[in-house]
Amino acid sequence: MPPLREPTFLILTALALRPLHGYGLITEVSELSDGRVTLRPGTLYGALDRLVDDRLVEADHEEVVDGRLRRYYRLTTPGVEALAAETERLQRNVEAASTRLRTRGWSPAARPATGGAV
Domain coordinates of the chain in residue numbers? Predict the structure, then answer.
């Protein structure tokens, strides 16, 4: 499986704990990314359609709230496996980068304020 794009990774991560509906996913993705990733409904539902087609996510249940239908989605077993594989891939990349940065003498406390070369 190719690497997941960040919004897809965050959607799967949001669904790792419990089923969520669209607005819940939008909110959870924003929180997980510290506000860096903001999903618009069209983007979210397009991503959910692809994830359903790929069998990584499936509809869990529906409920009517204030006269509007809410469809909840949940992670499937292949979705859990894809999220775990991507998490491991990202962790290996972080470890490799951290090792090289430490070799250069970098530490989070010594990070330059201007983004210049260390």
Answer: 6-102
Express each pLDDT in 29-86 by its tens digit: 999 999 999 999 999 999 999 999 999 999 999 999 899 999 999 999 999 999 999 9
pTM over 0.90: no
> Position of tokens 């491991």?
88
User: Quick count: other Cβ atoms within 10 Å of Cβ 50?
Assistant: 12
**Helices marked H in 21-117 — which ranges?**
22-32, 41-53, 77-103
**What is the topology classification, in CATH, of domain 6-102?**
Arc Repressor Mutant, subunit A (1.10.10)
The dihedral sign for the CA sequence 98, 104, 105, 110? negative
